[in-house]
Design goal:
Layout (H helix, E strand, L loop, with lengths): L11 H10 L3 H4 L12 E2 L2 E5 L34 E4 L11 E5 L23 E5 L2 E9 L2 E6 L8 E6 L5 E9 L5 E9 L5 E2 L13 E7 L2 H7 L4 E4 L3 E8 L7 E11 L7 E15 L3 E7 L23 E2 L4 E5 L2 H9 L4 E8 H5 L9 E7 L7 E7 L4
Antiparallel strand pairs: 1-2, 3-4, 4-8, 5-6, 6-9, 7-8, 9-10, 11-22, 12-13, 12-15, 14-15, 14-21, 15-20, 16-19, 16-21, 16-22, 17-18, 17-20
Length: about 400
Amino acid sequence: MTSKARKPYLGLGKSLIEFFNAPVRYLKESNEKESAFEKPYLDGEYPTMHFDLPQPDWPSWDFGGDRDDREVVGTGPHCKGCDLSHYDIQAEDCPTDAVNIYSSSRCVHEAYGFRTPQTGKTKTGGFIQVWGDTTLTVNALVGEIVSIGPGRWANQHPDVDVYVNSDIEEHVLLATMVDDLGNVCHETVEVSCEACENVAYNDVLKTAYTRSGHINSGHDDWATCRDTGANLVPDSNRSTANVGSKHDSGMDENYDIWRGYWGHTLGLDAENLITDGYLILEGTYAAGNPNMMLYGSNYDHPLVDGDWTEFESTALLDSAFEGTAAQHTLQLNAAGIAWLNTNKTGDVRFCMREYDYDVADTAPNDGVTALWRYDCYSTDKPELYIDYDTCGG
């Protein structure tokens, strides 16, 4: 006996395998349909299985595979190896060093060569560096950018130097490059900074050591007296020091010049950065309205003849001041702050010179005396006040 058996589940096994191989989220999106297990075929057409599930609306899981298979943004061939790199900085170097972000030169091309960098080309909206038609921009996703400028390798490939706010410990920077073909590259750069503590003037111990005094030079020839020194008298550990110039034709040595020397012990750590500073000197005597100027010095104690010319050429004050029998507050200029930082781990030393004759190299007329005397070894000895950051040096 034969019969024609109906086979309503024809192909069901294969369909279920395909069904369970699909993402599980398909099930969630099919909950409004009839159960595929209770009614495996549609009314009227039992061979047609009920697996017309809705397509998901989430993004494709295809991330492009090989880089060269990705969509090209631009009109020319795809820029292979389109990426960005960067040079990190040490956490304690945030105030002074820049994070350098640069692009591979492979991403900037014209046929098989490289474009010539164009100087002076600008663009608003965070634009930094141009190489041909290539732009490289950097924005802070976390933290704060203080300034951005052309990078140290600008003559080789597009790059920028980024300075971040050192008061913020963590930064996340997003660098974006669009090359001459319109291809876009992104790089996220994380920067960690060591939080700096600022130490103000009142928190700094006022220190002045006793290696103070002056050197006197006397001669009947101005140039010899001033330039090389003659009949030198180094005098250390004085209670007061002289600074000045004098001409008295009635003396055997017609000209006299005095230069004052003193120093302070700083003893800071190498990573400290001095940001400001000033001196307080107590004048005790003045004659002839003398003007003074301050210089750095590397003399040693006790003073010797060779220290006569032991001073730097750069003035540490913005202008000369008139020495009087009163207290003087001397604000150091940028060169003065730099001199402090040069000597911050040990002793910093100074030389005071009379300005109108000694510094100017102008011989005073007969009978002229321009002399100032300040306290250099007593309760009113020179005081140095500094303001510094605990990192950044």
